[in-house]
Every structure is written in structure tokens, then in C-alpha cells.
Amino acid sequence: AQDVREELGDAYAKLYDLIWKRAVASQMTDARIESTTVIADSTDDKKMYRFKTTGSVLLFDGFLKLTPQALEDKRLPQFVAGEKVVLSDIKGEEHETTPPPRYNDASLIKTLEEKSIGRPSTYASIISTITDRGYIERVERKFIPTTVGIAVNDFLVKNFSDIDDIPFTAQMEDDLDSVADGKKDWRKMLQEFYDPFAKTLEKVEDAKRVAIPVEKTDEKCPQCHEGHLVIRTGRFGKFFSCDRFPECRFTRQFVEETNVKCPKDGGKVIVKKTRKGRKFFGCSNYPKCDFAAWKLDDIKGYKPPKQEEKS
Fold it and tell me: What is the DSSP string of 92-109?
């Protein structure tokens, strides 16, 4: 690994070390862990309460000797089945589970494949649709739902729960395949779908329009001097608008700033978007300064190139 680090640098040395450890660990014996679960029941006149705790002890390292997974022994006191447990103290411990990671292009396509939704030829159009309509925005390659996306989702779940459903979508895909293969009559298939759908449309026709939440600011409107500016989300992203709209139609471009300075000229680093809606970080002094980066961490570790001295 030292030779790799000297020849290719730290990044490739870490990658080589990871591959080597995983390859060797795959040939090692499994680890042996002893797990214990203790369940205690407490009853009163009306209800029964069940308390549960688990413990684990690593008996043999096995492949974990080479690739430790941060396992810690959790030893429990000695218990005997059927014994009575006396309450001596109660301690409340806060425990937060790790939320599932945000979707990106690869993980979303993988989920669509697992749920039998869409086809390889439609995956790109699905992602472009939710991006172009402003339902999500990309933040460091991850999909973050916008206020518009959340509002649309809430409306569909409330009024079209039978259609905004994974099993329905997967079944519709299979029905369309059956029509294409000549195994199912398209008229009958559409009638089975549209008859209940038309009744739902009649009920939703008079539904209230979903109000997209806005982010309020303390800045007075520079045009009418009566209202305050709020941050709205439109077709091209966020923008400032007067909260007295439509009486006052003042708008202004929204610039999302960061607390990071440009390493090239010391200007403010702001959030920008590519034509496809992907976020990146650039200098506010563009085009005088063309510095740009995909991640803020890349900016912190950025080293300006050395300028050659003119003779």
C-alpha cells in the first residue's frame, strides 16, 4: 500500500486498501456473535406491559478482524427464566433511527425496477419530468422534494389514492404489455380504468386549489412599500415576490448564498443550476471569475493553480 501511495497518491492507496481487505475478508471465516434477548412482562388490573432488551457478545472475530464494523459488546446481567424483576430505577434514553438515504438517479431507477414500474426506455423521461416540473431539485446528486412537489404529492394522495399507488402502476404496465402482445382488448382495459376514474374526477372537480407554502422574509417590498417579500417557487426555481400579489406584481431573482468565499478572488460563493436543473456552487463575480464546484467540500480543499512566472 505504501508503494501505491507513493506512485498514485492517497486516494488510490485508500481504494487499493479497501479492495484488498474486502478480497481477503471474503476468504475468512464468519464471525460468531452470541445474542441474548430478555423479555419481562408486567401486569396490572387492566393492561399488560412488555419490556424487551437485547445484548450481544463477540465470541470470534472472523472476517471482522480485518474489516471491523464498529461492533461493541453489550453485556446483560445474569437472568434466570421465570424470575421476578424488581423495579429499582427508570431511565429514559433517546434513540433515533437512521433515516433512509435520499434518492439519486441510480437508486431511483433501481427502485423502479424492483417495483416493476416503467421500462429502461422510460426511466430517463421519468426523472426529467419530475425535475423539469420542479417537483424535486438536485443537491449534491441527491433528489430533494420542493414545496411544489410536496403539495402535488399531498393532493394526489388525498384525492387519487387508488391511482397514486405502486401496485396500480405496476398492474397498468402489465395490462399495457398484454395489449401490445394482443392478449387483451384495449377497449375493455381502458373502460375498466376510466369508469371509476371519471367518478373520482367529478368529486375532485370542486376541490380547493392547493396552496403552495411560501417562505416569508422581513424585507419590505421595494415597489409598493406595503407588503413584504416572500420566496415562491416557479417554473424556473425560487424567486422573490410581494405577498400582496396580484395587487403588487414585483418580482426579483432569488440568489441562494453560502457562507463560503471564493478561493480564487474572495467573492461570495452562491448556488447555481445547470440547464438540467442540477445544483452547483459558483462565484458571484461570474464571468470575471469562472470558479465552480459540485460540492462545498471541494471548495474547502481547493488549491489555486500556481501561475508561471514570466521571464
Answer: -----PPPPPPP-HHHHH
Cis, bond preceding 287 (omega within 30 deg of 0): yes
Phi, psi of 125, deg, nearest 5: -70, -35
Determine which helix (DSSP H) or strand (DSSP E) holds 131, and give its type and residue range: helix 123-132
Look up the pTM and report it.
0.52
Residue 304 contacts residue 263 (beta carbons within 8 Å):
yes
What is the arithmetic mean of pLDDT over 181-203?
88
How many Å apart are CA 167 and CA 173, to the nearest integer?
10
Backbone torsions φ then ψ of 95, nearest 5 degrees? -135, 125
Whether the Cβ atoms of residue 292 and residue 280 lie closer than 8 Å to each other: yes
How crowded is the C-beta side of 130, counted as CA atoms within 13 Å?
Answer: 22
Residues 25/63, Cβ–Cβ less than 8 Å: yes
- The C-alpha cell of 81 is what? 427464566
d(CA 141, CA 127): 13
With H, G, I as helix, E, B as strand and everything else as coil, classify residue 151: helix
* Residue-by-residue DSSP string for 31-63: PEEEEEEEEEEEE-SS-EEEEEEEEEEEEE-GG
The confidence score (pLDDT) of residue 311 equals 43
pLDDT in tens, 195-223: 888 888 888 877 777 767 777 888 888 88
Q: Using one digit for the tens of pLDDT, what is the confidence trace for 39-53?
A: 888 877 778 888 888
- The DSSP H or E segment spanning 191 is helix 186-204
